[in-house]
Design brief:
Number of helices: 9
Shape: globular
Largest sheet: 11 strands, mixed
CATH topology of the largest domain: Rossmann fold
Oligomer: single chain
CATH class of the largest domain: Alpha Beta
Length: 343
């Protein structure tokens, strides 16, 4: 099924113990390939990070370099490097690995680079890498404590990939998270959201694939002595996404009634907010309704400037799930206009 550049793969009936890239790779190959950004979101303890380490080993064995990212530089302090080496040795004890500033050396040459998103600017122009990386992994791009760098995730991520790979076609980036919310700034910036009923959603036109991890057993038993403690304390287990999927954004209005609010996309295209059955639906129109207020990002005597305060109010409505869109194109244009970035 292809809709607005979206290719989806149905949920698999096969139950696996831990996550691996097979399901994701299959969907990407069926789409025609060339998907460099791959988001993997699912419950913790199903082996996402462990699967990432296997990708690291495969990359090293191919003679290529790796960039491993976290949100904050403090996460690389202490025993992080030593623990990382121990994990690699669990996979292959013959590797000649040693710690170095900013990463790990293999056979005396730095091949793994550690960088954080919050200080991404320090990686520029200082000879950060002796060779282009072909694998980038961002672990926990939706942190459980809710903290993200001031500039969000998307901008630092893209800047670091540019610095270390020059956007090489050989470079693939995997981002892992524990299914807290699909409405992070990474989803919003690339305007790609997972489908509710699909395991893998591929946005071929955007070069993005999103896997919602289902069908993996993991290490945490669903039933057992501790499950009663967790349930009684109402601890979040992240078994499923909490938030909106792309399916939830799209609503076919039955009897839309135009409001007085519109956003200007271009000289001949507008997005107007309609009321329909207690829902607010944005619809692309060739011209706004007469007598309404038109907001614009540009100075326009016929429009009201879309300033930071108004954008903040619109973002609040969006991120609390108050808005719907009649098509995916309407959602895409809406995000273009209000620049939905969590900063």
């Amino acid at each position: 099924m292809v809709t607005h550049g979206i290719i989806s793969v149905n949920e698999s009936d096969n139950i696996k113990q831990y996550w691996d890239i097979e399901k994701l790779e299959t969907a990407i190959q069926e789409s025609g390939g060339d998907i460099p950004l791959r988001l993997v979101v699912g419950p913790n303890r199903i082996g996402k990070t462990w699967g990432g380490v296997k990708l690291v080993l495969d990359t090293l064995n191919d003679g290529n370099n790796v960039l491993w990212l976290r949100m904050f530089d403090e996460e690389f302090k202490g025993e992080f490097k030593a623990n990382f080496i121990n994990i690699l040795h669990e996979k292959d004890e013959t590797l000649n690995l040693e710690e170095c500033e900013g990463g790990i050396k293999l056979d005396g040459v730095q091949r793994i680079y550690f960088r954080s998103l919050n200080v991404f600017g320090k990686a520029r122009g200082n000879g950060s890498t002796t060779g282009e990386v072909t694998l980038v992994i961002l672990d926990e791009f939706i942190p459980e404590d809710g903290r993200v760098p001031k500039l969000g995730v998307y901008l630092p991520l893209m800047a670091l990939i540019r610095t270390f790979s020059n956007y090489s076609n050989k470079c693939i980036c995997y981002c892992f998270a524990n299914c807290i919310s699909p409405l992070s700034d990474l989803f919003a910036a690339i305007q790609a959201f997972p489908s509710k009923s699909k395991d893998v959603t591929v946005f071929k036109d955007k070069g993005v694939a999103i896997e919602v991890c289902r069908g993996y057993k993991g290490k945490i038993p669903e039933h057992g002595a501790w499950s009663r403690v967790v349930e009684s304390g109402k601890m979040r287990t992240y078994k499923e996404f909490e938030g909106l999927y792309i399916d939830d954004f799209i609503l076919k209005p039955r009897k839309p009634i135009a409001t007085k609010t519109s956003l200007k996309v271009s000289d001949n295209e507008y997005i107007t907010l309609f009321n329909d059955n207690q829902k607010q639906v944005w619809i692309v129109c060739s011209k706004p309704p007469s007598g309404g207020v038109v907001y614009s990002n540009d100075a326009d005597i016929k429009c009201v400037f879309l300033d930071a305060k108004i954008k903040s109010e619109i973002r609040k409505m969006f991120f609390t799930g108050r808005y719907r869109f009649n098509t995916y194109n309407s959602l895409s244009r809406f995000l273009d206009v209000i620049e939905v970035i969590l900063v």
